[in-house]
């Protein structure tokens, strides 16, 4: 019903091309304009010029602003609601958001502590109370907006639009996952680790897409993504990561692209899907992931109202 519910409303499918087209155009331009540029060195220069927190805000605030653009476009151009863009339920289930956020936050904290004690030589304590406090405030303000923009663009706006256009579920799942991965191609991590890390980004997009389709809503993906970026940024930074932060720890190890990149995709994400499936009693996986978008019966339309 997450995609099907839109069939009640007369939506011009062409309107789903505007924002993705503009955003993808900006990504392509950014990639071409930075090709051959040492993005890690560029980040260091930027940090020297406006500081760590200034660089963080400069990188994150445009994406936070784009969330407002997506929501405005959805409301006033497509005459839709945030609720329909977010979920097939009668209202947004914030318990789902917080459960997903808490589960991934706990996992991130535990694995960070284990990594620190297993290889303390790979880290230095980066904790500076005053700077960390300022960063916490900035991160809480901006990171959820940044991650929500990516979710509302890829797993909501684009996934719903492609679902309506193709009458399928697997096509929007694959396409949005691929584009989500490609969005990160200009990240400093790609320069440092190579193109193999794109498997992680695309795999993460696939995981978040499966969450959305199986749960018939965006809540679990919103919680996971916010926890991944927010808690990760608060705990660990490095000289070669996209987020330069006043975190508690700094990773000083020499990064390398090895089998560890595939552990989340092949092991951790499937375990999380199993946990969510048990908790929320998911069933009919084949239909929800690979089925067609079928017309909704008239009686089903009656239960779908614009907020």
Automatic annotation (TrEMBL):
Q: Which GO terms describe its molecular function?
A: endopeptidase activity
* Keywords on record: Membrane, Transmembrane, Transmembrane helix
GO BP terms, alphabetized? CAAX-box protein maturation
The answer to whether keyword Transmembrane applies is yes
Question: Residues in domain CAAX prenyl protease 2/Lysostaphin resistance protein A-like?
Answer: 132-231
Q: Where are the transmembrane segments?
A: 12-32, 52-76, 97-119, 131-149, 170-187, 193-213, 220-237, 257-278
Keyword Oxidoreductase among UniProt keywords: no
What name does this protein carry? CAAX prenyl protease 2/Lysostaphin resistance protein A-like domain-containing protein
A family per Pfam: Rce1-like
